[in-house]
Fold each of these.
Amino acid sequence: MIPSRASFPEGFLFGAATAAYQIEGTAFGGCGSTHWDTFSATPGNVKRAEGGSIACDHYNRWPADLDLLREAGFDAYRFSASWARVMPDGVTVNPEGLDFYERLVDGMGARGLRPFLTLYHWDLPSALADQGGWINRDTALRFGDYTETLLARIGDRVETVATVNEPWCVAWLSHFLGAHAPGLRDIRAAARAMHHILLAHGVAVERMRAMGQKNLGIVLNFDHATPASDDPKDVQAAAVQDAIFNRWFTEGIFRGAYPAEVLEGLEPHLPAGWQDDMARISQPIDWLGVNYYTRHIHAHDPAKAWPHDRDVPGPLEKTQMGWEIYPEGLKGFLTRIERDYTRGLPIYITENGMANDDAAGSDDAIRSDFIARHFAAAQAAIAEGVNLKGFFYWSLLDNYEWAEGYQKRFGLVHVNYETLERTPKPSYHALKRALARN
Ligand code: IFM
């Protein structure tokens, strides 16, 4: 059974999260081309070559989607704006794009939903990708202009702003592992993207502070790195992965320094003068968003170049993504982040959820159980003094799961991609019961 609202501290926020490219549909409203449109149009990158041109048609169906949030009893909605919708070529403003986000935040206000905005959830305008995207320092500066333009229009109505969603995915997954757009596998590109995405965060924070915007944060994803054995080499392989995935970002932001374990591999490839950006990257923020899904098991692999890592399959029950269900990792990260980095700053779980092969009307009891176990992990962290203020389920709707296309279903609400009909799943109703105010 999902722990009830009443079993959380007074004022704890419950929400659901989505992202622009995954639900809106780029075919509408004068949205520009993004690197995900071209990446998905290139054979071999995305399952069934699916892209985001229609997605869930949220651009047109947003009122009904906001109704679903309100009817579930959520307090807040975490959504992202698309840079390419606001500025189709990355620079020139599209008034229709700004109008759309204004309608959306006003729609939230009308339904009593608190808007949690993310500025960048991966839909980089193709015109900026042409100039090197996140490999190019200039993209970070252009991001500041986009930030200012969007917030000049809707900043007075959003409750919090996150600069970037999951910089590890923007940089490492996309430029070193090659799994996401732009699909590079190059250590020099990866090093630059790892730095420039944090610089973009710093630039955006600076610009927003100058505008008087409040409640600024960033959303990081955390993946628990478990060593495959007690062999010191496996223990070291897991420590290096922890440093790449988790500590690069927390230590860059909260300490103004990158971990030595990662600099060992990346320093030769970082842009000259990177140290001069660290003060900007580590400006104070007001809250931290934590996305948590799973753990990975790491072994040392001498046949591979740095970071000499091999993933080992784990024994735990897995989701449709093949990710092990490991709620202990959520509690572990929350207590570690509070102790080592945030020390009293508000933390929100900005994403947690699971994909399941749901048909319309089928039972997704496994999802309700997943939520129950992760709510319990969050409560255990609160009991140990973590200043956790809210929990957003990923995702409201089944949607475009990037390189996996549309078949991985994370939603509380089923989407029929032929008709675009929405059907709340049993987990939606279970969560609604848990959130009911008595
Ligand atoms: O769908 C993604 C989301 O865009 C970012 N966080 C992880 C989710 C599930 O993979």
Amino acid sequence: MVGTKQVRHLYWGLGPGPPTTISGVILALIVQKFGGSSVADAESIKRVARRIVDTRKAGNEVVVAVSAMGDSTDELLDLAHQVTPLPAPRELDMLLTAGERISMALLAMAIKSMGYDARSFTGSQAGMITDASHGSARIVDVTPGRIRDALDEGAVAIVAGFQGFNRDTKDITTLGRGGSDTTAVALAAALGADICEIYTDVDGVFTADPRVVPNARKLDRISSEEMLELAAAGAKVLYIRAVEYARRHGVTLHVRSSFNNNIGTIVFNADTARANGETVEEPIIAGIAADLSEAKVTVVGVPDIPGKAALIFKIVAKTNANVDMIVQNVSAAATGLTDISFTLPKSEGEKVLTALTNEQINVGFASLQYDDQIGKLALVGGGMRTNSGVSAKLFEALYEAGINIEMISTSEIRISVVTRADTINEAMRVVHTAFGLDGDVPVTVHGGTGR
Ligand code: ASP
Ligand code: MG
């Protein structure tokens, strides 16, 4: 059970401000986010409602951000595409936001039936102000006056995740897939919450995806910087935009399971912690993530003279593709030609190949190669900054498993390698073992997608 003591013990001192005192009782303001898999059916909604009521009973103020039930967002998307191959973006947002309206109202009803006051709010009612870009809107302001009022009147406020409102167009927007995480974090920041709990169907953030590495370990803590690198490298437990928002606004996250009461993973801002005088010991390796969604483009036979790389990436940039790793080979002395390879999301492959082909004569390259059978593995850890030998150990582990490395890139706290797609799972396991990350017991996975 989430008892008063446990909540207080866990959360005191983590929030941006001191705990509020009302007639001698210390209250925390807790934002809780429940993903689609946690509210997939009526039974689950009642289970989540009980958890919210328990948190409220313990004396906390509770704001909830909720996703659409189960896979209903995907079902609505399918429906739209059955009506037309290219749904109008404004209408698509109107349609998709209906999913969260359903879950928020049901959740509020369930809480009320348990004798506690609850009120649901759409994104616009909750003051989630966004820019105008349908399908991937960014939050520009949060004016949660009605949420604050509901809390002051003792109610639990339930907010529809993933949606907002643009002041100029006066239209409803959505924040992009998985946007409910961002809704929760933005509300936590605007309300000065003590903690933002992200409830999901796994126990927290793991050293690797437990479905690939069965003896992955749950992390008790991870810095937001490490979490950002892991999310960018393919870890699906948290959305990158939500982590970014939390980091920028100093929101502490607690990723935990809605299926049990275990303590999950605290995602904290290491800079803030250091500024508060805490000693932050970062592990050399926090975790590993893998990504199979990218492809590799090789521009073969590029004249090795100044300006060619600039030209190639100018052409690529015009397509708005997200280029990740870039490698240029040493040119062969006899020909004065070189090859340049880069990775990008598979979904952007076609437009980039077309754009480059159209400019082939200008650039003067010989041919293009496209390879969508690659996998990318990233090793992340804040302690890498002060530890040498991490890359050597990584390469050694892959060599011993007979896995060939095709590309390498590094940042301050990350090393990434590209391998063949069909070796990526094996790569994950051997690297996990090599860095001593293996736990003693296999993780129970509840199924679902980790959201
Ligand atoms: N329902 C939306 C989606 O499935 C938002 C979310 O789940 O966070 O992407
Ligand atoms: Mg969802």
